[in-house]
Amino acid sequence: MEYSAKVMDHFMNPRNVGEIEDASGVGTVGNAKCGDIMKVYLQIEDGIIQDAKFKTFGCGAAVATSSMATELVKGKTIQQALEVTNKAVMEALDGLPPVKVHCSCLAEEALHAALWDYAEKNHIVIEGLKKPVNDIDELHHHTEE
Ligand code: FES
């Protein structure tokens, strides 16, 4: 499988690994097929994403896409962060092999789940943001009910 130099760089030296204590929004998503899990933390102040961190238990492409996705949203407004789609992440990484495209989708979903969490906590509606489907915390709540 061919990975770009950028993917390798973000896999070997991932940016923004870790947690944010008292984060404004946290999103955890998973892919049932490969079993990979991604957690994204966002620190949002005055509508700007001041900081973003992640923890990913998954493949190299999952690590590289979460690293790039968190890099791309830092310093952005919430609306700009919504433009950080899986395609944008893939482009920034100079592409991914076809079987690894779903890893970039997971990064987008984790980002959206964190934004959704932020919106819920603050009782706001983020225009254009859909409820994340692979939200693990959400699934957990459902099984508990
Ligand atoms: Fe599933 Fe990469 S193989 S996220």
From TrEMBL:
GO BP annotation list: iron-sulfur cluster assembly
Superkingdom of origin: Bacteria
Domain named NIF system FeS cluster assembly NifU N-terminal: residues: 2-123
GO function terms (MF aspect): iron ion binding; iron-sulfur cluster binding
Classification via InterPro entries: NIF_FeS_clus_asmbl_NifU-like, NIF_FeS_clus_asmbl_NifU_N
Record NCBIfam families: NifU_clost
Protein name, entry field: Iron-sulfur cluster assembly scaffold protein NifU
Protein's organism: Anaerotignum lactatifermentans
